[in-house]
């Protein structure tokens, strides 16, 4: 990952003090950060998910790629030096080496999550009741099958809201 830092030395550097928020959950997308030194904690809904201290680690990429508000908070756990690409889209589209690093990281996360979900499905196979729905829920999540919900009822099927 250190080659990521070397590739980004033209970006502005910023120091974030321990405890300060770098990206707030719900914040508008745009800036992509590269960790130079220090450590950040990733939190979602107040739950700590990961600690990142590897130089060259990239964050802010998910909200930039998805064009949605940040799904997690990134907070410095120690004084941390970052490089900041304030136009995340331009940064990612202009640097094939960086987008490849992001793709590899996202693929690794997906592989880890798939392994975890496989284990959860194995543990609850054959369960009845609400635990038996885990297989269906996980399959829907894994395949991005968001249920289509239409307003109305059998009596009034064509409601326009």
Structure, described:
With 161 residues, the chain is α+β, with helices and mostly antiparallel strands. The chain has a domain of 93 residues: Jelly Rolls (Sandwich), CATH 2.60.120. Helices cover 35% and strands 22% of the residues. The protein has five helices and eight strands; from the N terminus they run αββββββαββααα. It has a four-stranded antiparallel β-sheet with strand order 1-8-3-6. The chain has a four-stranded antiparallel β-sheet with strand order 2-7-4-5, with no helix packed on it. Helix 4 packs antiparallel against helix 5.
* Helix-strand category: alpha+beta
CATH class of one domain: Mainly Beta
Number of DSSP helices? 5
Helix-strand pattern: HEEEEEEHEEHHH
Strand order of the largest sheet: 1-8-3-6
User: What low-confidence regions span 5 or more consecutive residues with pLDDT below 50?
Assistant: none
In angstroms, what is the radius of gyration?
20 Å
**Percentage of helical residues?**
25-40%
Strand content: 15-25%
CATH topology of one domain: Jelly Rolls
| Main β-sheet description | 4 strands, antiparallel
Specify the CATH architecture of one domain: Sandwich
Distance between the termini: 50 Å
Write the SSE topology.
Elements (H helix, E strand, L loop, with lengths): L1 H6 L5 E4 L4 E3 L8 E6 L2 E5 L2 E6 L5 E2 L1 H6 L6 E4 L3 E6 L2 H7 L1 H28 L10 H9 L19
Antiparallel strand pairs: 1-8, 2-7, 3-6, 3-8, 4-5, 4-7
Helix pairs in contact: 4-5
């Amino acid at each position: 990952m250190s080659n990521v830092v070397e590739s980004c030395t033209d970006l502005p550097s910023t120091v974030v003090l321990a405890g300060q928020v770098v990206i707030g959950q719900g914040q508008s997308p745009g800036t992509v950060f590269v960790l130079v030194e220090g450590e950040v904690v990733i939190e979602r809904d107040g739950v700590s998910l990961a600690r990142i201290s590897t130089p060259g680690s990239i964050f802010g990429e998910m909200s930039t790629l998805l064009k949605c508000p940040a799904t997690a908070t990134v907070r410095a756990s120690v004084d941390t030096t970052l490089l900041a690409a304030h136009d995340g889209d331009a940064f990612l589209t202009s640097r094939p080496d960086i987008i490849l690093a992001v793709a590899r990281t996202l693929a690794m996360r997906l592989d880890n999550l798939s392994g975890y979900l496989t284990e959860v499905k194995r543990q609850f196979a054959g369960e009845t009741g609400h635990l038996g729905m885990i297989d269906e829920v996980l399959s829907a999540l894994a395949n991005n099958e968001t249920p289509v919900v239409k307003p109305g009822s059998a009596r009034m099927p064509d409601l326009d809201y």
